[in-house]
Predict the structure.
Amino acid sequence: MKLSKRKSALVATAIAAAMLMTACGGSDNSGGGSTASSGGSFSIYIGEPENPIVPGNTTESEGAQVVEALWTGLVKYGDDSSVQYTGVADSIKSDDATTWTVTLKDGWTFHDGTPVTASSFVDAWNYTALSANAQAGSSFFANVEGYDALQGKTDDAGAVVAAPTATEMSGLKVVDDKTFTVTLTAPFAQYPVTVGYAAFFPQPESFFKDPAAAGKKPVGNGPFKADGEFVPGQGFTVSRYDNYAGDAKAKADSVDFKVYTDINTAYTDTQGGNLDVLNNIPPDAITTAKDTFGDRYGETPSSSFTYMGFPTYDPRYADKRVRQAFSLAIDRKAITDAIFSGTRVPANSVIAPVVDGYRDDACKYCKVDVAKANQLLDAAGFDRSKPVDLWFNSGAGHDAWVEAVGNQLRTNLGIEFTLQGNLDFSQYLPLQDTKGMTGPFRLGWSMDYPSPQNYLEPLYSTKALAPAGSNTTFYSNPKFDQLLAQGNQATSNDEAIKLYQQAEDVLLEDMPVLPMFYGLEQTVWSDRVADVKVDIFGHVDVASVTVK
């Protein structure tokens, strides 16, 4: 997911369970020791979502926080990144890791009272995969048989030159109301790990009658239901769904999702009691937040990885030597120490340290070497007389560290820079999808599901090129794609990790992104609430929050 772990047994868990996955109980890590009872209302910060509230079109953090409150998928994830059968699925089984049989539990309903059936998933997945629907989560179904037939072709200007030849993937079959099968194009033992992600959430029949209306007032199957339409720039209120079939029923009566354009305003509002939960701390407050909020301050390990993407479609950044030079000219530790007071870890890989497969020496171009950087830049014939544009979204506290990157490029490479930070998040992301970046651009990623594959395939594979996926650098390398495919088909944990690491080596030689740092989730809350938990994906578990 665009933006946000704990050391996980993620691949091992998936591989061991691949051939026969049975139900298991979830964990309840409630914190805070509150004696508050159920009921009451609280407010929570979000930035402006990029798109309407549709799971298959939500691949960024702000919309995801809302989606997680309104929907529950086939599986959920434990605090140790393990797959937990506390969602809609009773089991997900396969004899060959290619054809999977999904069996649903009884009793699940949507907020409109209609039942959650096998068709609810199959229809939603086909809708998301179909290129004509322009869903950002489409590429998550690229390994299902028949996906290619749902993909039209466009020219460089984005005009459709060939329509899809089908509207349903041949690899999805409804057996009965509680059973459907998924046939993949190749074995993928980790498949059950992936399906807890939002792109795989179900939709009621009403959604397909008017998707635009459903995006404004969504109908999900989660612990909260929408009371009215989501208002851009403001947000909306959701209330507890009393017929929720999951184990973790909501404690509060309602939640007010409040959209902020400036994180500093949100922080001030939390201090003043006008906002109850904020899981994003302004850089200026990092060193003082713990003292300011006391026991209303929390820190949790994060799966987040922050980077700057290169527009590889721009001739100025098409040569990998330019990208390598920029990376060698950046002192990440100096930036994390000066701007974030050491609460961020300099990145030396594109896989976060909390995931199996991370290596602390993967990136040879992430070490400072000014002499080598200048040699590479000269060899590439880079024009140093023209400033570089450095892009970031406004109001989210990125100004200082992006400017620090620019200052280091000026000092170490003799290149001037221009800050491009006037767009809010909902405007910033679409510009990337349409090749609108004119220089390195800030982005972040936190895992969608607990696997090192999730830090590679959705961001850099050819099939994930925007807008069908999150590959907004428009990087493509057949060798990288091939190694990913081999890793996906691996039948052991060690084999999968080895292949993913080989794919990462290819990527880090090409350097389509500038790795910057790994994050730490820092959350503050008002004295009106307790039991504030942040999950392994960096989302506040709104169902667990209690109101005093």
About this structure: The CA atoms of residues 68 and 222 lie 8 Å apart. Residues 1-36 have pLDDT under 50 and may be disordered.
